[in-house]
Amino acid sequence: MLSFAAKLAITILIFWWINKSFGFSNIVDTLKKANFFWFAAAISIHIISIFIGALQWGIILKNRGLHLPKFEIIKLYYTGMFFNNFVLGTIAGDSFKVAALHRKNSAKSGFAATFLDRFAGLAVLSFFAVVGAIIISALNFAGSKNLHLTVSILLFFSLILAMVFFLIFSKRIQNIFSKLLLKFPNLSIAEKIEDVVSSVYIDRRNKSDAKMLLNIFLLSFLIQGLRISTHIFCAAAIGIFTFGTIHYYFVIIPITAILMMIPLPFGVIPAIAGAIFFAAGFSADAATIMEFLASIAGIIGSLAGAVFFLLDKKIK
Known about the structure:
The protein has helices spanning about 1-20, 25-30, 35-65, 70-90, 90-100, 105-140, 145-170, 170-180, 185-200, 205-235, 245-260, 270-280, 285-300, 305-310. By secondary structure, the chain is mainly α.
């Protein structure tokens, strides 16, 4: 109860700060002038990205030995996405999906599939961020404006790419991890952790794993591209998008995706994202409104998940 009250208080504080900083009337005026076509497009492509994401998750589940009906996979994935967008970030949605599969006595495979799904997206977002940071660095090379920050972002996401690669593809790293676990005081817990970590290993020499790997990364490029486009279309809706700034979206959105792994109250991530866009040279009020519109588009796009959750007793 105290935790919920604290998160509610933070959310209220965020909205108070936005109102004090930009003025409620200015926010309303900006929203009134918004182009509904572009906002509807943002919602539509977010819905499409969730559907494709469900197909990707289904491919991984099948590879990990879980053969569920397609409609059930879609229901679970949409519900998880609704929790991601509306409750406490990606940890809420992922925990829901793993818990739902646990009821089917498939907790380990469910965790492995959800982990691989999450890290495929993270790897692709990191790739986008690295490319975007290289472009920004090249554009700012003549002057030193924000160059050190851009290089730091470049190194950070390059490190994430390396970590994802070694954790999923390197059996040697997993063996080292297993040896370290043997020194853990509670052997039963250590064995459970080792069992879960080993379940996410992908053998690139195995035809089934190699095919699954190719499919999920191709789909991840499409999924994450669509989700970044949600923010771009929201920017177009309020008239602040230009092609000359498109590379910033491919750097800033991955940063906010990392932050979504932290269970933060609603309103915090859009406010932070707006502040980062402002640091990149965008108008502060317009950037913040753009990010709140993107959050609203995500919630509306995943409302089917809330309906599935309320109507289907099997996943409660």
